[in-house]
Amino acid sequence: MEFDTVNEAYALNGKCKGFSIRKSDVRTRGPEGKKVVVMRQYVCNKHGLREKKHLCRIERKRDHNRLTSTKCAARLRVHYKAKKGRYVVSIFEEAYNYELTPSRFVHLHPIYREIYEVDRAQIDGLQSHGIRTCHIMG
Locate the FAR1 domain: which residues (predicted)? Predict the structure, then answer.
């Protein structure tokens, strides 16, 4: 697959597959101010594990967040090809080790939640007339 921008690859990959992704490695090239991303890697949000030194500390003031990482190996890597002027997928791994979200519920992942401009205008209009947020959301 080929993309015009790095962000197109980011937007397409996770949402259609049923998982959340996050940005991982990046490599840039060029002079300061005109740097070009030549490689970008996106990984599953469950990629990696928490370091043991953070789990064993006794001087913690707060409780740990729950462990959600499953050492998932799913990733997408794109490289910039100067001859084409586009980003090309160089590595794509679909090695999920957990059950993916059904496509009808993907919009509920925090990364994909968004309020469109039209909806924002409607919410602002309702709030200006004294309607409370809980009633608007209902």
Answer: 10-101
Question: Beta-strand (E) ranges in 45-104?
Answer: 75-81, 86-93
Note the Cα 86 to chain centre separation in Å: 21
Instruction: Determine what percent of the chain is predicted with pLDDT higher than 70.
Output: 75
Exposed, middle or buried, 87 (CB in 10 Å: 0-12/13-18/19+)? buried
Distance CA 14, CA 115 (A): 19
Q: Taking a C-beta distance cutoff of 8 angstroms, is the pair 40, 3 a contact? A: no
Instruction: State the pTM of this model.
Output: 0.61
Which DSSP string do the residues of 93-105 spell out, in sequence order? E----SPPPPGGG
